[in-house]
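Postdoc handover notes: sequence design on the structure in folder B. Input tokens:
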């Protein structure tokens, strides 16, 4: 199986140990936004576990990603929104009185 190249992402953020903004560039699949934090895989430990840096969103100036990955991500978000909307609509419909 051929592995698809998803490109790179660059995160520019305030690091408390640095005077100037810091910059991390990693593979796109190693960056995710979750619970008001950017999670960036920075490596692996000796046991093969991922090492992840959690950067609070208020410390991030910007995240730059390659366009192809952005299009995939936007499509995924759209699909997730549609699934969630359908779920909520079904819940509301079940609770409405019939008659």
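Designed sequence:
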């Amino acid at each position: 199986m051929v592995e698809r190249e998803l490109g790179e992402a660059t995160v520019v953020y305030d690091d408390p140990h640095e005077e100037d903004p810091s910059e991390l560039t990693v593979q796109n699949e190693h960056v995710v936004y979750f619970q008001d934090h950017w999670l960036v895989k920075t490596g692996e430990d000796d046991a093969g576990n991922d090492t992840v840096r959690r950067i609070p969103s208020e410390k991030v100036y910007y995240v730059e990603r390659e366009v192809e990955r952005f299009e995939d991500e936007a499509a995924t978000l759209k699909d997730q929104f549609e699934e969630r909307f359908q779920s909520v609509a079904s819940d509301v419909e079940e609770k409405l009185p019939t008659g």
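Context for whoever picks this up: The CA atoms of residues 89 and 95 lie 10 Å apart. Don't rerun without checking with the PI first.
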